[in-house]
Amino acid sequence: MPIIYKLCPSSLWREAEAAGVFHGMAIDSRDGYIHFSTGAQVRETARLHFAGAADLVLVAVDAARLGEALRYEPSRGGDLFPHLYAPLELTAVTWVKPLPLGPDGVHAFPDDVP
Question: Hey, where are the domains in the chain?
């Protein structure tokens, strides 16, 4: 089961849980799709786009459950990033964990993220 990841402010994720669906963040709405990262990409995404953000969650999603709305497209450095051209149905989420900042100011990822 391929897992992809979404970094998200915890307050926005709580809204998604209440609604039963995640429509994305402001950047997702602007770009027309929900940005995700693979396990190999997610730490760099956190470093580049979420540096110092203290109240994040890391959302793990079963990519196989997203169907044809999920596309891998070139982005940073030509790397293929997962983009979802539909709202994220929460039934595809495998887990949600806090993503705290470590003492060094870098996000401390769960051990089960490659």
Answer: 3-99
